Automatic annotation (TrEMBL):
Domain Glycosyltransferase 2-like: 19-173
Top-level taxonomic group: Archaea
Keyword Glycosyltransferase carried by entry: yes
Pfam family, any one: Glycos_transf_2
Protein name: Dolichyl-phosphate hexose transferase
Species name: Halorientalis brevis
One MF annotation (Gene Ontology) recorded for this entry: glycosyltransferase activity
Taxonomic placement: Archaea, Methanobacteriati, Methanobacteriota, Stenosarchaea group, Halobacteria
Keyword tags: Glycosyltransferase, Transferase
EC number: 2.4.1.-
SUPFAM superfamilies for this protein: Nucleotide-diphospho-sugar transferases
Keyword Transport: no
Length: 236
């Protein structure tokens, strides 16, 4: 992964150019906090898109906070997040989970890196230890990062993080295929295609509400996606 800054770009984006997008599945305990944080940090200027499959009050709370809500039958993380990133209208697209684990106060740092010329800015949760993450998941995430690093040939520290910023052009240029493994795919395809990608360390908080991901079946799916996506990209 590049440590040098890519070339200066001619446009400087502000939060008026940012869409913050997420899949939401029964997140009524967390969504109010997440969307208030986004509004506070961006001065209410970012567009928010929620692709929602909830049977609780999540969608209602999202609309009360001014988010655009796209309803979708629950079909897994990646189906929702793919719809969300493709629905974003603005040139910079930020993904997050709707569980209050990701630090919205770091949005300015993600935007700064995009303005420095990066195409993808990925939040590395493992850098500070991710003590709030279940130990099994933490171990799995370290293993995925090692596996992906070997397959890509560059050191990646966190392949499965949910908080990233992307240039929308890149999102639209690549065909996305994975579901549970979408987060890894969104990092690995751009990396192998030599887009400018960087990681920044982020804090990772305690989850509000229940996780939707089964660690064993989800972990297997992510491992498979990493191998498949890396092979496809290297054989392109
Ligand atoms: N719309 C929709 N959102 C989902 C689905 N599965 C997960 N999500 C959302 O995707 C995000 C990531 O899921 P999460 O349970 O936090 O996974 P974890 O971070 O691995 O524990 C959360 O905001 C979930 O609400 C789904 O089937 N449909
Ligand atoms: Mg989560």
């Amino acid at each position: 992964m590049s440590t040098q800054l890519p070339g200066e770009t001619d446009v400087t984006y502000t939060f008026d150019d940012v869409s913050v997008v997420m899949g939401t599945y029964n997140e009524e305990d967390a969504i109010g906090t997440v969307l208030s944080d986004v509004a506070d940090v961006t001065d209410d200027r970012a567009e928010v898109v929620c692709v929602d499959g909830s049977s609780d009050r999540t969608a209602e709370i999202a609309r009360e906070h001014g988010a655009r809500v796209i309803e979708q039958e629950p079909q897994g993380y990646g189906v929702a997040v793919r719809e969300a990133v493709l629905a974003a209208d603005r040139p910079v697209v930020v993904t997050t989970d709707c569980d209050d684990t990701y630090p919205m106060e770091r949005l300015p740092d993600f935007l700064d890196r995009i303005n420095q010329g990066y195409d993808v800015v990925s939040g590395d949760r493992l850098y500070y230890g991710a003590e709030t993450m279940p130990a099994f998941n933490r171990l799995g995430n370290h293993a995925f990062a090692l596996l992906a690093s070997l397959l890509v040939g560059e050191r990646i520290h966190d392949t499965t993080t949910g908080m990233r910023a992307y240039r929308r052009e890149l999102i639209q240029q690549i065909h996305w295929t994975e579901n549970t493994g979408l987060s890894a795919e969104l990092l690995l395809r751009p990396l192998v295609r030599e887009y400018d990608v960087c990681e920044i360390p982020i804090e990772y908080g305690e989850r509000k509400g229940e996780t939707t991901l089964d660690p064993i079946s989800g972990g297997l799916a992510i491992g498979k996606s990493i191998v498949k996506v890396c092979l496809e990209e290297r054989l392109r």
